[in-house]
Amino acid sequence: MSTPTAVASTYEQRLAGFDWAIGERDLGYRPGGPINIGWHCTDRICQTGRAAKTALVWEDAAGAERRYTFDDLRRLSNAFAAFLQQLCEPGERVCLFMDRVPELYVGVLAILKMGAVAQPLFSAFGEESLWTRLDDAATAVVITQRKHLGKVRRVRDRLPALRHTVVVDAATGLQDGEVPFALDAAPRVERFDVHPTGPETPSVLHYTSGTTGRPKGAQHVHYSLIGQYLTAKWVLDLRDEDVYWCNADPGWVTGTSYGIIGPWACGATQVVLDAGFNAQRWYQFLARRRVTVWYSAPTAIRLLMREGPDPPRQCDLSSLRHLCSVGEPLNPEAVTWSAAVFGRPFHDTYWQTETGCIVITNFPGMRIKPGSMGKPFPGITAALLDPRTLEPMRDTGRVGLIALRPGWPSMMRAYWRNPEGYAAKFRNGWYVAGDRATVDADGYFWFVGRDDDVINTAGHLVGPFEIESALLEHPAVAESAAVAKPDPVNMEVVKAFVTLKRGFAPGDELELDIMNTVRRRLSPLAMPQEIEFVASLPRTRSGKIVRRVLRAREFGEEVGDLSTLMEEEGDPMDDLERVIRDYVVKEYLEEGDDREIADATPLISGGIVDSFSMVSLKRFLEKKYGVQIPDAEATPDAFDTVRSIAGVVRRVRARAATA
Predict the structure, then answer these.
(1) I need a surface site. Which of 27, 117, 379, 428 has the fewest CB within 10 A?
(2) What pLDDT score does 561 carry?
(3) Contact call for residues 250 and 96 (beta carbons, < 8 A)
(4) Alpha-carbon distances, residue 539 vs 105, 255, 306 (angstroms)
(5) Fold of 452-569
(6) Residue 586 has pLDDT above 80, yes or no
(7) Nearest of 123, 128, 117 to residue 98 by alpha carbon
């Protein structure tokens, strides 16, 4: 899979004589002077004559639309920043705990303009996950929606630093310490004195989970803009005429670095779909919005692949010209599939919360080797370290630790209140990413697995990614995860967890056939010694498959921090109690009714829901979770609290799964 030689030379041209000062000059930044991400993404774009250009087109699941120009972003972020100045000081942490609504995107810019630190958190977090991160950051202000306000209220008393909660979609029914802010109704502010942040002024605090301990807050600074701008311009290939869609939620670093900062620093038009995954809806959105550049994730791509080739053929996707992927390794099958379906391949990109920007990538115009991470971005010195000596390895094909020379603009500057954890990431003069890879004779990096995911079988290191790629070549396999399993002879052997495509059923014959596919494709050592067929795989809320959970089960170990995981095995009933609470608040409470709906709040006996209205709640839950709740179980007693209702749904679903 290749492109013309004239285009392929672009990477080498960019590499020759590269200096991060290229980004500084593009953005008009003078070393030693102020640099503010919020200003550069709004005011600067307007000063270049693009004030009337569309910056954001937002759409929800119902098709409602909100549209903003760069001048709208400038004046609305000014208004939001002026409002926040009354609530907190520069340097304090301001959390954004919202769905993908315009207030989230404008809010990040506003926080940065007034000098505070933006702390985006995924809105699906439960109370304890929310509390852990707000407590660790000593967050001063939380910006949220009414639908998530209950979670904030339930942890507020345990957060001594939290002074204010800003609610963006409710003006009534608020409690002490809660204040409303309506973005679209707020008077536009023409002039705002942007806080004179310097290159090392903290900007964004993103939390990331490890295998042990509490989540770690990766602290970034305003100078990160240089790396995020250049990688958005060169890797995502963003041009002035582009319409860009990034699937990622800004609660995760991709949704901030490349869903807010990078593209708007380039002056690109962004489209946002505030709705869950649905293949037909996504294809229609791509076609309707005439998206030209699409940044997605392997999980989403594989889900699209499961739907087959027909859905994309029903939409006009001719506007697409460049596709990129991030979040986990992109299987070769996904690259070849996208080339066949969209007429162009997905370009895999590699980076982390800690790196702040793309560091290894398939550069536009480079020859793509399906399954490869690509090559280091210009300005990034990458190597593979010997796991024992921590010295760079010169030979190709050997598995080593991915390491980067510190000093690129977007590198995190600290783990918040965790200097020991931060220091542990740097060894022998290198930032050690915690991932293993190989490099080939052409300088392409090939992902092997997390440092704690690599399987050591009979003294041979086997990477889960290559096994999973081989598993996906079998026509019955939809998704897979390969982990180590203890073995008395070989120390470890490979065990695979597999979800099947529609029309296939688990069985001994199928298990053997899948095993032999891997043996033929790779080697007997890489062949799984056991395959467990499962309904779904454990994932983080951003969609990554979490092998360590499966590995820990096999070894009888603690799994560490699980706060960013979906419920067991990615259960779609994740956060069931929250869904029920939200429905009750929306359907049965009047405007201004500030009653708390806790899990044990009496609903029917407490007069909130009458026994007749219970029928509509039952139908809502049946439709959402694909169950049939017998009338004998939908009694007033069983439906009297959020907790008891959730228990009914779980019991019914469990019976259906084993029937």
Answers:
(1) 428
(2) 60
(3) yes
(4) 25, 18, 18
(5) GMP Synthetase; Chain A, domain 3 (3.30.300)
(6) no
(7) 123
> What is the CATH topology of the domain spanning 572-658?
1.10.1200
How would you classify the pairing of strands 322-325 and 293-296?
A: parallel
Using DSSP's 3-state secondary structure scheme, residue 457 falls into strand
Structure confidence at residue 210 (pLDDT): 52
Contact 603, 642 (CB under 8 A): yes
The predicted model gives 332-355 an average pLDDT of: 95
Mean pLDDT of 2-14: 58
Look at the block and give the residue holding tokens 């790629």.
469
647 has a pLDDT exceeding 90: no
3-state DSSP of 338-367: HHHHHCCCEEEEECCCCCCCCCEECCCCCC
Collapsing DSSP to helix, strand or coil, 105 comes out as helix
224 contacts: CB under 8 Å, gap ≥ 6: 37, 203, 204, 257, 261, 356, 357, 409, 410, 411
Residue 12 CB: number of other CB atoms within 10 A?
12
Q: What would the pLDDT profile of 153-183 be if each residue is shown by its tens digit? A: 999 999 999 999 999 999 999 999 999 999 9
Highest mean predicted confidence (pLDDT) among 121-135, 219-233, 485-499, 502-516? 219-233
Q: CATH number of the domain at 5-439, out of 3.40.50.720, 3.40.50.1820, 3.40.50.12780, 3.30.300.180? A: 3.40.50.12780
Render 5-32 in DSSP notation, one character per residue. HHHHHHHHHHHTT--THHHHHHHT--TT
* Alpha-carbon dihedral angle through residues 345, 346, 347, 348, given to the nearest 10 degrees: -140
